[in-house]
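User: I'm curious what two different proteins look like when written out as structure tokens. Can you demonstrate?

Assistant: Sure. I'll show them one after the other, since each token string lines up with its own sequence. Here's the first protein:
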Amino acid sequence: MLQPISCNGYSIYFNEDGYEKLRQFIQEKNHSKVFILVDENTHIHCLPRFMGNMAEDFTAEIIEIEAGEVYKNIETCSQVWQVLSEMGADRKSLLINLGGGVVTDLGGFVASTFMRGIDFVNIPTSLLAMVDASVGGKTGVDLGPLKNQVGVINVPETLLVDTAFLNTLPPEQMRSGLAEMLKHGLIYDKNYWKEFQNLSALDLNDLDTLIRDSIIIKNNIVMEDPREAGLRKTLNFGHTLGHAIESYFLQNPEKPTLLHGEAIAIGMILETFLSREIEQFPGEKLEQVSSVILSYFPKVTIEENDIGSIISYLKYDKKNTHGNINFVLLRDIGTPSIDVRANNELITRSFTYYKEQESN
């Protein structure tokens, strides 16, 4: 059995143990009403399993939103607030967010702001949400193409990670979550990074352990720096350029829509290149990082005339201060460096480096 993880103000429980704790919590709190937020995919693929693991007399109102990052906005929040009001939600109600990062981010924000805050529980159903959105209390929505521009930091009452939900995911969604796990190794733990050199040798039990270890890494960082004054910024490795690429591709009808992890994977290669140029990150390790990431993530075509537009998105990054674009780079694997600046010429060269890499 995977042992629970204690976070700032709540605990993360796993699999069967998690359902038992959730049943206890709901019984003790005696909420006036329970609501479950799902999207159209988790409604079909995850809700039946969740309800089957709850007590027979457990009842809840289901609220469904449309699936996809494009619906992670204030308009969707307004609709959910409206439905909560119409269904008689009050300050003693509970919102259970059953879904990937869009559902947990948006649902956490809806709960944190409805009647100035009601209880919420997160049940992440994608690998990305389990290892990333599940920890740290960041809630929020996008503002047009700008990622997570509006939100609050507020933790759930409890969090349940049921790895059986991963069986419902298509391969590209599994890969998307893998990007954040790779990132946790690169910024924090070289031994954890080594585990990913040969993932084909691992079985499902190994994956459960890797997921728990990834959550522990993120939790350790968040516990030490809950308000993102220093260390927590390291979690943004790969995200400065990754988010800009994700936003640009989202806005450009001629481009394929990239999943979060697919964009972050590119961002990590680009920012590891910057690390070599600025922080003297070892060249052979840059080659290794690129090779490992490209063994999981197919190359994405980024044309030369895309680069200027992608760079223009950097000004919206939330780590920026006083008009400066701040990067998280690496001095070595497991040794990050925060608030580093890079000029446009170097950033452009990082795209050239990515373009020259061979897909594995």
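Here's a second, unrelated protein for contrast:
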Amino acid sequence: MRILYPFAKRFIAGENLETALKNIYKLNDNGYLCTIDVLGEDTHNPGQAENARDEYIALLKAIETHHMPLDLSLKLSQMGLSIDPALCRKNVEAVIDAAGQHTVRFDMEGSNLTQAILDMCLELHQPHSNLGIVVQAYLHRTEKDVATMIDKQISVRLCKGAYKEPADIAFQDMQAIRENFLKLAHPLLKEGHLPAIATHDETLIRHILQFIEKEKIAPETFYFELLYGVRRDLQKHLLDQGYQVRIYVPYGSAWLPYTLRRLAERKENILFVIKSLVQETLGLGKLGK
């Protein structure tokens, strides 16, 4: 399956830390902030979970003298959540303690883990104020979860959601997902703590730009977050307009399962990649400031 790597490397910063850091520093030099994801999830034994923990700690040691703040995106299934929640918590706290002033953010996974991920975030946020969370707009429950995170002033990254979920718990129609995304984004932007709007959808971004102008929301109070290698034209446009733009940067040896899983989970993921490449080639729509 090595034949897929030339395709995957457009969206992955490297197979190892050394290569990834070169790409991360280049992004920083160009004015972008970064969220770093060490690829891997669904570990099957404690040793694998501890290796994932150690990879994040090695990353943090490597950037000790780096002047830019970073987000670390952790998948709790990678940290051992499905093996032993206590083991997962121990591994996560080791990463948070090593992170210092950098943010650690629990990535969201399939709905079978949603409640456990949110519970651990709420449990650990009080002693670790640099902890944040990701929520998915296509889940019916997310409106309530966003309200909780705003109340606790936990930093939220809002995304549409990439996993295939049934209709009884998730919106299936893209227009319904967009409407819910905006419904959630508005209170996050007005009342949340340093939220990130994570989308490449120009329709959503256009509405967000109009909303922040109308509400006079300061650019330094939120972020736009976009995927590494996806819609680089859109990334630059937002950065040039004076907004904080954070790039989600995955790296690691598990690039193949990551790529195959993302493409296999939902047909929309394949269409998204193809559409993004075409849109970047054709250029931006009328976004404005």
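A detail about the second structure: The radius of gyration is 18 Å.
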